Amino acid sequence: MSKVCIVFDRIRSEEKMLQKEAEELGCNTSMLDAKITQINTDSKKDDYDLGDVVLERCVSYFRGLHFTASLEFMGAPVINTYDVANICGNKMIMTLRLKKHNIPTPKTYFSFSSESAFENLEKVGYPLVIKPVIGSWGRGVMPLRDKDTAEAIMEIRDINDGPHDRIYYLQELIQRPPRDIRVITVGDNVVAAMYRKSLDGFKTNIALGADPELCEVSKEMEDIALKASKAVGGGILGIDMMEDEKTGLTVHEVNNTVEFKGLSRVSKRNIPKAMVEYALNYIRK
Amino acid sequence: MNCQECDATLNIPDDASVGEIVSCPDCGADFEIASKDGSNFVLKQAESVGEDWGE
Would you list the domain boundaries of chain B? Predict the structure, then answer.
């Protein structure tokens, strides 16, 4: 009997759904709290209850990334892999990867100091959207519509001066309906998609209360989502797209530890079951 | 079990798992279930949302 290990740092309904589906598929499960697990350079896979395959589900990106590196060091198969997590966790690296693979993605400008970012803004013109290269749930994402706003944001960044505050990621503001599309890909398949409608304003994150609505997956959407998944290395991913009024679907984000509570509420597909089945097939290959 | 912040009663379902978050209905403090033995729970202060939290 196969055993699936779910690595977590906070149990959300997603992790409980994954555990339940794994057990209903006849698997044993183990839940491993990354926060209290100690690993060293002599650690072996058998020192831990890692089962046959690990689903890394930490809510903290850096914790999950480094934990994955440790598990892979011990030879444990982890979904998603360190390389995939590393690419998806940094918006700049992810955007470069999408563009390199000819996936439609918004035009994005990179600067490496506030002076340079401001100079670029003045050259390109307003509005542009500023996004932190690390971060999720729409935190720190805001449209810069004028010089005063840009100066204020950059001053805050200079004061904070975290390592990633010096990396400026400025993206064209896409003219789109007040929604975006989240597509969940599992391996070479699209499992489900939803529209995320903004309640009032710019952001469409479910974590901020956006309303999920089932989205029928078109052939174009499926093709783009699967190409985006492949571009970052594949696995279990959340591909975010916008409907550009001029150019059509454009991918603005690929999420590594995809949340699916919102989509599960509206989808007829059993999303966690598809994820566990993928994990079981992953080790059979 | 009572809230460590305000002493209000915390209602923790018997099927709650280690790692789950319990919020105090009165003061809103968050606690993580650190361990469980039957219907006895040990709670610890939950981590606050980090800059790198998310998907």
Answer: 1-48
Q: Cα distance from B8 to chain A (closest Cα, Å)?
A: 23
Among the partner residues B19, B20, B54, nearest to A137 by beta-carbon distance: B54
Closest CA to A191 of A120, A277, A256: A277
- Do residues A64 and A284 lie in contact, with contact meaning Cβ atoms separated by under 8 Å? no
Say how many C-beta atoms besides its own lie within 10 A of residue A219's C-beta.
7
- Can you give the pLDDT of all 285 residues of chain A as single tens digits? 899 999 999 999 999 999 999 999 999 999 999 999 999 999 999 999 999 999 999 999 999 999 999 999 999 999 999 999 999 999 999 999 999 999 999 999 999 999 999 999 999 999 999 999 999 888 899 999 999 999 999 999 999 888 999 999 999 999 999 999 999 999 999 999 999 988 767 777 766 667 789 999 999 999 999 999 999 999 999 999 999 999 999 999 999 999 999 899 889 999 999 999 999 999 987
Q: Of A201, A221, A217, give the one whose Cα is nearest residue A209.
A: A201
The 10 Å Cβ neighbour count of residue B39 is 10
Q: Do B20 and A62 touch (CB under 8 A)?
A: no
Give the CA count within 13 Å in the CB-facing half-sphere of A53.
22
Provide the ipTM. 0.82
pTM: 0.93
Structural domains for chain A: 3-87 (3.40.50.20), 108-172 (3.30.1490.20), 175-284 (3.30.470.20)
Class of domain B1-48: mainly beta
Q: Which of B19, B50, B52 sits opposite A8 (nearest CB)?
A: B19
